């Protein structure tokens, strides 16, 4: 008869089954049976039958050992289940990389996607967007104040009154920027601060705030919290300035100044000034449209997990939203390795932005960027989506008298309407994709207005469907 105690037997079995590490309940477990007829016969039952001559102490020790083994086994089972779930989650996970120039609409596209497929998560962040929306509004008012200062309109009594009454909004802008920013982003904003020449040279915009900082605002609350105090202070100052904000925005001298100084406010600045009365009300809550319009320059790379709440419930897509400035592009490459989908966003409305002498206008710059993405070997097997975005602003620009052909001679004498221009873009981008891709690859092209939630619903649903279910035949093959 074996002289091992029950505990000793368990230890030896655990050692024997070491290929299924430390797993007492594993089905390939082999125990030596105590049957007298065949002492070496294996059997798979656990726990094994107790020895016939077991003492009370041995029994207590055996039961204790068995209980310990059972717990350990359950823990291993749970860990294996967790690993399987995690593996399955990762298998079903899609990784999406958003690429494109700054201000092309990458973050807005992501917001539209989240609004459509994870509306509860989208709306749960509404409170955090409040500070960003206040910042957008006061930033726009400050641009008007800067313009008025530069034009020296002090002769007008109304303007003088507005300059004084709205001056607290300068401190509000600084406080909100500090609340929302990292040091890095703050430095960038201060460079742009108060410089009318900068506004004149390019469109008036540029709110640069690191999102990882501001998103945490949704979670902090309560009196005494510095961030919340700043937001509450902003709310009350903006509320007190409510009528004067409307007054400066509708003032015809101010409008004239803007046009004399060739300052073109961005569409989101116009939106927030138009909506100032509603936003400055004491009971204001950010709407979906406000959130989509809010401008917050992406700094660095942001990773967003979107878990589908309705269709494909539980499925997770990881989005990498990347800063679009020219200087940041080297930082994109590490993300090329591991993504399933590239969504390239191109604004078709700012073809006339002049860059430096070497780069020419923005139309050429964006084509070059698209070419460099197409020919990148790391992305050879990735599915591509191209969003030719901001057709609404393109239409407005062309209707106001800008001739596309003046900036892109190759356009020739085609009709100067947004559809012809958008189709021209489409052809150019398809040709580059065909000529420079390392191998055949799927590409789907959409002409979009990322802030139009109804139109985006159809487009994003089509994109999601193509990614997940539809055969490759329906995609545009090279
Ligand atoms: N009118 C209009 N505005 C748009 C459209 N798409 C985006 N916007 C606005 O354009 C601004 C810039 O969009 P973002 O999504 O922040 O641009 P981005 O590409 O993420 O820019 P970076 O973060 O600087 O790289 C935001 O205020 C958006 O609301 C569009 O199709 N039409
Ligand atoms: Mg962005």
From TrEMBL:
**Annotated GTP binding sites:** 292-298, 389-392, 450
What GO terms are given for molecular function? G protein-coupled receptor binding; G-protein beta/gamma-subunit complex binding; GTP binding; GTPase activity; metal ion binding
Q: Where does Mg(2+) bind?
A: 107, 298
Q: Where is the composition biased (Basic and acidic residues)?
A: 35-44
Q: Which InterPro entries match?
A: Gprotein_alpha_su, GproteinA_insert, P-loop_NTPase
Q: Where does this protein have coiled-coil stretches?
A: none
| Pfam families for the chain | G-alpha (PF00503)
Q: Which UniProt keywords apply?
A: GTP-binding, Magnesium, Metal-binding, Nucleotide-binding, Transducer
This entry carries the following GO cellular component terms, namely: cytoplasm; heterotrimeric G-protein complex
What's any GO biological process attached to this entry?
adenylate cyclase-modulating G protein-coupled receptor signaling pathway
**PROSITE patterns from the UniProt entry:** G_ALPHA
Identify the Gene3D superfamilies for this entry.
GI Alpha 1, domain 2-like, P-loop containing nucleotide triphosphate hydrolases
Which superkingdom?
Answer: Eukaryota
> Region Disordered: start and end of each range?
24-56
* The protein's name: G-alpha-domain-containing protein
């Amino acid at each position: 008869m074996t002289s091992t105690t029950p505990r000793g037997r368990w230890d030896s079995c655990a050692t024997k089954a070491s290929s299924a590490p430390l797993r007492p309940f594993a089905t390939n477990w082999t125990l030596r049976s105590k049957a007298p007829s065949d002492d070496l016969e294996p059997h798979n039952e656990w726990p094994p039958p107790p020895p016939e001559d077991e003492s009370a102490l041995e029994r207590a020790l055996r039961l204790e050992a068995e209980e310990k083994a059972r717990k350990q086994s359950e823990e291993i089972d749970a860990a294996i289940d967790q690993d399987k779930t995690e593996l399955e989650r990762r298998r079903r996970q899609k990784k999406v990389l958003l690429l494109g120039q700054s201000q092309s609409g990458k973050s807005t596209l992501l917001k539209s996607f989240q609004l459509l497929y994870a509306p509860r998560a989208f709306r749960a962040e509404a409170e955090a967007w409040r500070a960003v929306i206040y910042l957008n509004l006061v930033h726009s008012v400050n641009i008007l104040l800067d313009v008025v200062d530069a034009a020296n309109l002090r002769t007008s009594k109304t303007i003088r009154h507005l300059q004084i009454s709205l001056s607290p909004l300068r401190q509000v802008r600084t406080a909100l920027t500090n609340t929302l920013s990292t040091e890095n982003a703050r430095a960038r904003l201060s460079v742009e601060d108060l410089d009318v020449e900068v506004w004149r040279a390019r469109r008036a915009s540029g709110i640069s705030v690191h999102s990882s900082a501001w998103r945490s605002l949704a979670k902090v609350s309560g009196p005494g919290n510095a961030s919340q105090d700043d937001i509450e202070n902003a709310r009350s100052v903006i509320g007190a300035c409510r009528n004067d904000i409307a007054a400066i925005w509708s003032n015809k001298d101010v409008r004239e100044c803007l046009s004399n100084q060739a300052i073109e406010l961005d569409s989101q600045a116009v939106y927030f000034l138009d909506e100032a009365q509603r936003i400055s009300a004491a009971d204001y809550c950010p709407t979906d449209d406000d959130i989509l319009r809010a401008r917050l320059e992406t700094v660095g790379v942001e990773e967003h997990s979107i878990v589908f709440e309705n269709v494909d419930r539980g499925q997770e897509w990881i989005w990498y939203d990347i800063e679009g400035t020219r200087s940041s592009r080297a930082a994109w490459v590490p993300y090329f390795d591991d993504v399933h989908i590239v969504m390239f966003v191109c604004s078709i409305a700012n073809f006339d932005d002049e860059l430096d002498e070497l780069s020419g206008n923005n139309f050429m710059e964006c084509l070059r960027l698209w070419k460099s993405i197409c020919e990148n070997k790391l992305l050879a097997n990735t599915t591509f989506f191209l969003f030719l975005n901001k057709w609404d602003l393109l239409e407005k620009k062309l209707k106001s008298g800008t001739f596309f052909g003046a900036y892109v001679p190759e356009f020739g004498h085609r009709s100067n309407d947004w559809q012809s221009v958008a189709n021209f873009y489409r052809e150019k981008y398809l040709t580059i994709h065909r000529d420079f891709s390392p191998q055949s690859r799927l590409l789907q092209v959409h002409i979009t207005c990322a802030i139009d939630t109804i139109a985006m619903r159809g487009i994003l649903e089509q994109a999601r469907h193509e990614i997940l279910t539809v055969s490759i035949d329906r995609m545009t093959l090279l």
